[in-house]
Amino acid sequence: YVELPYGITLLTNANIWGDGKKEPNVVEFVFPDSVTLIQNNAFTQVSACKKITMSKNLKTIEMWSFYNSANLETIVFPKDCAVESIDKGTFSGCTRLANINLENCTSLKTLGDQVFYNCGAIDRLALPDSIEHIGDNALENLGDFELASNYLPNSLTYVGSYFLAHCNLKN
């Protein structure tokens, strides 16, 4: 378990991997509320991590930030999390990701292309009412899962192609 120190505002691949020679052997990360941005590839292929607790003030998670983090099971967003955008491929290939609470992201407007591509362990997904854009292939290959509200929010203005390809909605 690692709680990153308050004052860090940006998480990069260099923050996590250091010299890039050795993967951090950390099972859980807790991001302080000072973190507002997670840059591209920051946690790509970090295989030991199982749980991430996001910053309440996080605004953007850039492309491929957690791509292929094979053992990642849980993402916790604090209540009224400020995240507005989860970009392309952010959690793509996180095959054990089962628990993610997007309903706490009351400012979330954009889910990028392939954001949850091949995350077959997710069995329930709640989209916040603030969502406006769901990218291409965003939920592709989720397998059997349930949209928690049984509807897409009225705020939605764009739904990408194949966003539910190879999925079996339970509801």
Number of strands: 15
Count of helical stretches: 1
Helix/sheet category: mainly beta
Return the average pLDDT rounded to an integer. 89
Radius of gyration: 15 Å
Order of helices and strands: EEHEEEEEEEEEEEEE
Strand percentage lies at 15-25%
Q: List the uncertain runs.
A: none
The N- and C-terminal alpha carbons lie at a distance of: 36 Å
* Largest sheet geometry: 7 strands, parallel
Spatial sequence of strands, sheet with the most strands: 2-4-6-8-10-12-14
Shape: globular
- Which percent bin holds the helix content? under 10%
Mind explaining what this structure looks like?
The chain is an all-beta fold and 171 residues long. The protein has one helix and 15 strands. It has one helix spanning 13-17; strands at 2-3, 10-11, 28-30, 37-38, 51-53, 60-61, 74-76, 85-86, 99-100, 110-111, 124-125, 133-134, 143-147, 158-159, 167-169. The strands form three sheets. A seven-stranded parallel sheet has the order 2-4-6-8-10-12-14. The N and C termini lie far apart (36 Å). The model has no long low-confidence stretch (mean pLDDT 89).
Structure in a nutshell:
By secondary structure, this protein is mostly beta strands. It has one helix spanning 13-17; strands at 2-3, 10-11, 28-30, 37-38, 51-53, 60-61, 74-76, 85-86, 99-100, 110-111, 124-125, 133-134, 143-147, 158-159, 167-169.
